[in-house]
Amino acid sequence: MHEENCIFCKIIRGELPSQKVHEDEETLAFHDINPIAPVHVLVVPKRHIASVLELTETDAPLIGRIHRTIQRVAKELGVDESGFRVVTNTGAHGQQTVFHLHYHVIGGRQLTWTM
Ligand code: 5GP
Ligand code: ZN
Predict the structure, then answer these.
(1) Which pLDDT value is given to residue 3?
(2) Which range of residues forms the domain containing residue 59?
């Protein structure tokens, strides 16, 4: 999917609404539209990257920034002490449905291996 039609690029550009949790120059965090737990936030790079398979060595600082945003989200939504899960679905077997790299931050209840 190209950036023009990418749903998360549209959210980043402000063409589609979202409930933002955190934003900086490189990342955006917003509530998932169909949450599977009390806390379910998506952390995305602002630059269009289809999946983890597209990341390269030069993206190391961006990956670090994404993890800083994940920490902020966890603290802001109060799951830093109770715990949470970070998930990145990739490809068909991973059930990736949006082809813009995103990290699910899921918590607020006891999770099982199958969620
Ligand atoms: P995936 O299945 O690719 O790992 O995750 C895509 C996630 O994006 C799903 O959890 C889905 O609920 C969420 N999602 C899809 N469209 C939208 C949208 O327009 N807004 C928001 N906030 N989340 C969306
Ligand atoms: Zn995109």
Answers:
(1) 85
(2) 7-107
pLDDT profile of the chain (115 residues), mean per 10: 89 98 98 98 98 98 98 98 98 98 98 93
Tell me if 86 CB under 6 Å of ligand 1.
no
What is the side-by-side order of every strand in the sheet holding 20-23?
20-23, 27-31, 39-45, 103-107, 84-87
Q: Closest Cα to residue 45, out of 29, 64, 26?
A: 26
Ligand 1 centroid – CA 34 distance (Å): 7
Please count the structural domains in the chain: 1
47: domain CATH number is 3.30.428.10
Question: How far, in Å, from the CA of 8 to the mean position of ligand 1?
Answer: 8
Does residue 114 belong to any structural domain of this protein? Answer: no
